[in-house]
């Protein structure tokens, strides 16, 4: 491997390793404060933990039982911020908590919901209330009452992508399929060796940020030869996707005998999302799959509550992720804090390393702000925090989903309402960039099936770092549930020709 002299290599203020929500959130915040930023991700953005969540922006009602009041307060406030920043992606959702006296007392639930209503700044979401169920309820007849409260749902992977787009628009350079092989201090800056699809190269940074999620501890030890200041507990969370379990648009939060809770959430119009689990994970972080025990666990919880009985044959899809939780020596995985810890290490007198331990999707923006606050000493000319009020891409001038859907239908006569709704939800007002110069379905190009056209695929390659069919179907559009293997191969062949031809990269 031939390298140029260190002094001639590009020098960035910050290099971030890790393209999940926390790494990209930090890169976005830093770029908006006038810093030069480079971010690398070894796979696709949001390809691991950040696309394997329960798709919620929430305060974490159950965290109150573990006295995590600061975390819950911060998360509840962030619901309001993110609803304003990305109203097309972050949408209110009502949750029903069936009451079962032998699991939690009514006064305990009422007290928790009172705190949940009042700990954070609740402006747009309605307060909790007690409810009763009649014969039309999808719940079993012996469950006669419960409680209702509000949180939000989100497309987790797209939240990562729109932060990446904004970071790039603020001047950051972000690359996928690029692994950080090593980093060391040379001439008082970080000399970082990267590898993109077997091709190595080097860059330099004044500050290195380790936002590798589940790999945070191993990255410190293997690539940086540094001691980790904290231990990480890898906790697997798995989900099932089944055909829609009930007709109403509420989510359900189900209590279980072990003290944990399981969500049942309306998903993509035709499905129900069931999860999550909490179990220690000790295997390969690149090969996380649901276990038979987790499947049984989730099915058992749902079947104890709903009239419709689910079996393994009803499972359409499963997915699993590993949460990198900072080890607080809790006995049970579900009791481990979901809060984040930032560790600033001075590897040399002038070259800091910042490592991110833990965190949750809802509080990524606060985590990023805290990270930049820790770096103020090294960048005294850095501009102030800016992310609270500036919309994320697609949230600019958003006046509501229905109005945007109507505008799309006026622009493209005869467009299917389902497609117009999906575009409005996925892209928000950035749909007009997707439709630039397009006025009829004849301009959509090749039809790959299930509402996916060449027009959109080309846009995703050009704007959203897409290189493979998985990128399109699972992390950008969620159409993977509908595509068969032959349709996937046709899409993949097209992407190979497009990416090779236009970007000089092999998908």
Query: Mind telling me which CATH architecture of the largest domain this is?
Result: 2-Layer Sandwich
The tally of helices reads: 13
Helix share of residues?
Answer: 25-40%
Strand runs, count: 20
Number of domains: 3
Low-confidence stretches: none
Task: Kindly list the characteristics that best describe this protein.
EC 1.1.99.5; glycerol-3-phosphate dehydrogenase (quinone) activity; alpha+beta; Helicase, Ruva Protein, domain 3; 20 strands; 507 residues; FAD/NAD(P)-binding domain; 3 domains; D-Amino Acid Oxidase, Chain A, domain 2; 8-stranded mixed beta sheet
In short:
The chain is an alpha+beta fold.
What would your notes on this structure say?
Belongs to the FAD-dependent glycerol-3-phosphate dehydrogenase family. GO terms for molecular function: glycerol-3-phosphate dehydrogenase (quinone) activity. Residues 386-482 form the Alpha-glycerophosphate oxidase C-terminal domain. Its cofactor is FAD. With 507 residues, the protein is of the alpha+beta class. The chain folds into three domains: 7-48 and 158-231 and 338-378, FAD/NAD(P)-binding domain (3-Layer(bba) Sandwich), CATH 3.50.50.60; 90-154 and 233-332, 2-Layer Sandwich (D-Amino Acid Oxidase, Chain A, domain 2), CATH 3.30.9; 401-503, Helicase, Ruva Protein, domain 3. 29% of the residues lie in helices and 25% in strands. The mean pLDDT is 94.
Question: Which SSEs are present, and which pair or pack?
Answer:
Blueprint: E1 11-17, H1 21-32, E2 37-40, E3 56-57, H2 69-85, E4 91-98, H3 106-118, E5 129-132, E6 145-153, H4 156-169, E7 173-175, E8 178-186, E9 189-196, E10 199-210, H5 216-222, E11 232-243, E12 251-255, E13 261-267, E14 271-275, E15 279-280, H6 292-303, E16 315-326, E17 340-346, E18 352-358, H7 364-374, H8 401-411, H9 417-427, H10 431-434, E19 447-449, E20 452-453, H11 454-463, H12 469-476, H13 485-503
Parallel strand pairs: 1-2, 1-10, 2-7, 4-12, 10-18
Antiparallel strand pairs: 3-6, 4-6, 5-6, 8-9, 9-10, 11-14, 11-15, 11-16, 12-13, 13-14, 17-18, 19-20
Helix pairs in contact: 1-4, 1-7, 8-9
């Amino acid at each position: 491997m031939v390298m140029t002299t260190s002094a001639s290599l590009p020098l960035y203020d910050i290099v971030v390793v890790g393209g999940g929500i926390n790494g990209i959130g930090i890169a976005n915040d830093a770029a908006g404060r006038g810093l030069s930023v480079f971010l690398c991700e070894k796979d696709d953005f949001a390809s691991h933990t950040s696309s394997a969540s329960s798709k919620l922006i929430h305060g974490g009602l159950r965290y109150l039982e573990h006295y995590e009041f600061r975390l819950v307060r911060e998360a509840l406030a962030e619901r309001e911020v993110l609803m304003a920043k990305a109203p097309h992606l972050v949408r209110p959702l009502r949750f029903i908590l069936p009451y079962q006296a032998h699991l939690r007392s009514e006064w305990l639930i009422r007290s928790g919901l009172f705190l949940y209503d009042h700990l954070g700044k609740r402006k747009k979401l309605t307060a909790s209330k007690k409810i009763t169920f009649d014969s039309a309820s999808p719940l079993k007849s012996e469950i006669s009452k419960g409680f209702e409260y509000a949180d939000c749902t989100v497309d987790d992977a797209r939240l990562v992508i729109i932060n990446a787009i904004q970071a790039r628009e603020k001047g950051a350079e972000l690359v996928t399929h690029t692994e950080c092989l090593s980093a060391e201090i040379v001439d008082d800056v970080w000399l970082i060796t990267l590898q993109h699809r077997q091709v190595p190269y080097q860059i330099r940074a004044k500050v290195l940020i380790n936002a590798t999620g589940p790999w945070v501890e191993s990255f410190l030890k293997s690539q940086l030869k540094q001691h980790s200041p904290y231990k990480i507990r890898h906790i697997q969370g798995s989900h099932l996707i089944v055909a829609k379990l009930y007709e109403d648009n509420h989510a359900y939060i189900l209590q279980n005998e072990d003290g944990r809770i399981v969500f049942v959430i309306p998903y993509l119009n035709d499905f129900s999302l069931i999860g999550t689990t909490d179990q220690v994970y000790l295997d390969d972080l690149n090969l996380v799959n649901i276990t038979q025990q987790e499947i049984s666990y989730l099915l058992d919880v749902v079947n104890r509550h709903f009239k419709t009985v689910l079996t393994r044959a009803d499972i359409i899809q499963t997915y699993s992720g590993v949460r990198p939780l900072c080890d607080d020596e809790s006995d049970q995985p579900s009791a481990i804090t979901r809060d984040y810890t930032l560790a600033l290490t001075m590897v040399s007198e002038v070259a800091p390393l910042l490592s991110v331990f833990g965190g949750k999707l809802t509080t990524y923006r606060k985590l990023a702000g805290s990270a930049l606050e820790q770096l103020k000493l090294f960048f005294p000319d850095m501009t102030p925090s800016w992310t609270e009020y500036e919309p994320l891409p697609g949230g600019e001038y958003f006046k509501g989903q229905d109005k945007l859907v109507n505008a799309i239908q006026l622009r493209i006569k005869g467009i299917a309402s389902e497609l117009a709704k999906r575009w409005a939800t996925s892209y928000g007002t950035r749909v007009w960039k997707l439709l630039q110069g397009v006025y009829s379905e004849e301009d959509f190009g090749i039809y790959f099936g299930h509402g996916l056209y060449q027009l959109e695929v080309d846009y995703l390659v050009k704007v959203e770092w897409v290189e493979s069919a998985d990128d399109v179907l699972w992390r950008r559009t969620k159409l993977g549930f509908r595509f068969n293997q032959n349709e996937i191969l046709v899409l993949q062949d097209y992407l190979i020709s497009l990416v090779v031809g236009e970007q000089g990269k092999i998908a």
